[in-house]
Amino acid sequence: MQPLIRKQQSAFKITPNLKDYQAVSKNFSWEDVKKEIDFTGGKLNAAYNAIERNAKNWRKNKIALYWIGADNQKQKFTFAELNDLSNQFANLLHDLEIEQQDRVFFFLSRVPELYFGFLGTLKRGAIAGTMFAAFGPQAIVDRLKNSAAKVLITEPELFDRVEKAASFLPDLKTILVTGDVKFALKKKISGKKILPFNQVLSKQSSDYQTRMMAPDDPAFMLYTSGTTGKPKGVVHVHKAIIHEHISAKYVLDLRDDDVYWCTADPGWVTGIAYEILGSWSNGASTVVFNGRFDPALWYQIIEDYKVTVWYTAPTAIRMLEAAGDEIVKQFDLSSLRHLASVGEPLNPEPIRWGLKVFGLPFHDNWWQTETGGILIANYPSMDIKPGSMGKPLPGITAAIIDDSGKKLGPGEEGNLAIKPGWPSMMKTIWRRPNKYKSYFKKGWYISGDRAYTDKDDYFWFIGRADDVIKTSGERVGPFEVESALIEHPAVVEAGVIGKPDPLRGEIIKAFVKLKDGVKPSKKLKDELAQFVKKHLAAHAYPREIEFIDKLPKTRSGKIMRRVLKAKELGLPIGDTSTLEEY
Ligand code: ATP
Ligand code: MG
């Protein structure tokens, strides 16, 4: 058991938005939260709440977006400026005959056009879709064909991939290209109009009457990370903003004077819910860095912009740790006051490291593309049990249930399930109604993840249902084995799978990335196996260890255990559209 990280009210630089988890949970009502969102006649628009109302209140001249380009170019946008640009984009969509519920997709790196274009699409009542800029032509075809998008916004660097995909996309009528578009305009793609984004945008008026939508009208869609299989097109509605607003307030603790940096990409749900919607609806200034992962650069950004709240992912934290403690000391990071992490289980070791080098722990939280917002979290005011995902957001009923729908007690492993009906719950899986239905059983939303609760009602992640290992009759979660391995000073990261074994059903196999300079050897393998035996459990140690230079990950940074397993077994690896180059 890891020592508790205690939170003392007296130690806070500022009082957390969620002062008392128990009290707020007990008296919580979504009706109260709705009062923080602007409705007109029972209708609302998520983009109105994120940007427009701020452009109409005292925040209008406040910086909404600090943008840093890959080559260190810098731009700033106030709430009013972003609002005007999003209005121009909504007007442009009008000219392109985009109507309510038409799909408008963005295939862009993290450029400003992505942010105001997304908002403008919602204002028009169309459905905005995003795709991560690293996707290749096949991934683009899969997504745009499935969603039947009519408009695509892209940039010169990505154009050749779009060109390759375009002939497979009969519904796609218009391709807007940002930046320097001379070469793109010379191209001809039959049946498609190719337009220069900035030129056509600048001709549009910055007045636009935002469409107020029914709460359950779709607002945006995006595809899951594809960690377990083919990505699913998840559709979210305008009222999701209610959930994203309150979770950004309680979990990320955002408020007006924050400079907030979310390192996620809007190609994934975190970038949409907490880089665009929930964060701006709380009035925080957002930093966006459109560049690669680089520890020194990242710390420089925190120092330069005096970032106060930082939301990132375990894979990044482990890489920062691997870069060492010395580099941290070269920067003034004293502006930081709250750190959070999502996307994968956060092992205890990087939490302790954060505490050591930043003086602050990372707060893990759990959610999925399908849930549209954070559901289980560690809060600034709540003690952290390192390795635990925390407790359900006020207003959320989460439970561990068995396959027959029976609720399980503390310490019992089962399906992590949520009572349906929270505001940001997906509306459907695009064109796959049966897939959507398959998530719901016996009155619960079944997440597909395995977990347990402890006697204090903290939730603990075990693994994805398909990844849990059954060895000699015992169930072992890959996460706990991975966490034990990375406690060892020689290990940076580990991916653990069950490998079929005639005697034991499965044996545990670990793929281990060693720290720079550590020599792989048979002796080290034995040492690691013994280490897990001693620190975790005698039955849960890896009988096989393989050293690996790079773990296969999704482009959103999640370890793809199914790829490790397929390679191990010599099977086809399935959908690779979200696999990082490897
Ligand atoms: P696919 O559904 O296509 O296989 P995916 O599940 O990785 O991809 P996302 O919706 O991006 O797609 O990720 C949600 C999943 O990520 C969760 O179901 C869970 O397995 C994992 N996850 C996210 N946050 C955490 C966390 N804090 N702790 C443990 N696991 C997490
Ligand atoms: Mg999933």
From TrEMBL:
The keyword Transmembrane does not apply. PROSITE patterns: AMP_BINDING. GO terms for cellular component: cytosol. It holds the Pfam family AMP-binding_C. Residues 52-430 form the AMP-dependent synthetase/ligase domain. InterPro entries: AMP-bd_C, AMP-bd_C_sf, AMP-binding, AMP-binding_CS, AMP-dep_synth/lig_dom, ANL_N_sf. Coiled coil: none annotated. One of its GO terms (molecular function) is acetate-CoA ligase activity. Keywords: Acetylation, ATP-binding, Ligase, Nucleotide-binding. GO terms for biological process: acetyl-CoA biosynthetic process. Residues 480-558 form the AMP-binding enzyme C-terminal domain. Its EC number is 6.2.1.1. Signal peptide: none annotated. It comes from the Bacteria. The keyword Ligase applies. Belongs to the ATP-dependent AMP-binding enzyme family. This is acetate--CoA ligase. It comes from Candidatus Curtissbacteria bacterium GW2011_GWA2_41_24.
